Amino acid sequence: MMNRFGTGITSGFYASEAALDFGRMPRPDFFVVGAFKSGSTALYDQLRRHPQIYMPFHKEPLYFGDDLTRRYGRLTEADYLRLFKDAKPKQRIGEASTWYLYSISAAQEIKDFSPDSQILVVLRNPVDVMYAQHNQLIFNVIEDIPDFAEALAAEPERRQGKRIPPGPINIENLFYRHSVHFAEQLERYFDVFGRDKVHVMLHDDLRRDGAGTVRGVLEFLGVDPTLAAAPPKSNENRRVRSPVVQRLIFAPKLLLPLAPFLRRFKSVRALRTRMLEANSEAKPRAPMDPQLRRELIEEFTPEIERLAALIGRDLSAWLAQPSAPAREGERKAAPTPA
Length: 338
Fold this sequence. Notes:
The protein is α/β, with parallel strands linked by helices.
């Protein structure tokens, strides 16, 4: 049996799916589509607290995007809709999957699924996003190149299917440069939904005036803005205590076939979160090598200027260069892909 996106349904787990009335099940009417490592988790955590909004326990369900890979398999339509079954009448219903922004097909798929949806986008300096993403992928046992410059240099080969780490991964996560062309990605959502249905904010906004930024989101969604508060600190950089334990948490070989089924349950996700917290400690990310940062800012200046013009925001702060140059010979520059 196949669902609407052509993915198989395992009859043992989903025998009752045929009996479900998809048309009567609550479905999301707004989506936080990105960008990854830009503050979406903090925004999601805050929006979930609003009594007029329902967002499921499962952040990043990643249901849409035929062109995306999934580490643990794709949800069926039934399992996706089950995420919203506890929504109350008249609540706004949303979900947050930050790779929808990168996907070429997700915008139109969302539009087809929920035509009147509204879109929320949080953006950040692409240079900072790439560096934060590299750290996150190491923590998630996806990236096997610990040096950021070397990981950047490996991207052209990885896009050809070479130097791919073992185990289940989302391969596009490793395409650091390719994944942060935010102007092009945002234009897709403007084209599909119209600018009036897409609310864009910056990571800088959340840090500078979190409550005010959330208030703007609540007004955009048409819910009570007086309940706005600054988002809690979320998704802090963490250092792994035991790499062996971390791999068992993220890629347990015996449980991987059951992952699409187990991820249904809030208790399973809560247990996984507690295990990750026990096996790690909060630790500030080391600053990027100044010379590498200088090169990346220069490389991404046209992209940042294009984005600034598209959203009508002053992004000149993103172009600021580090003041102290790196000493000659401290590292090799990361080559720019052709």
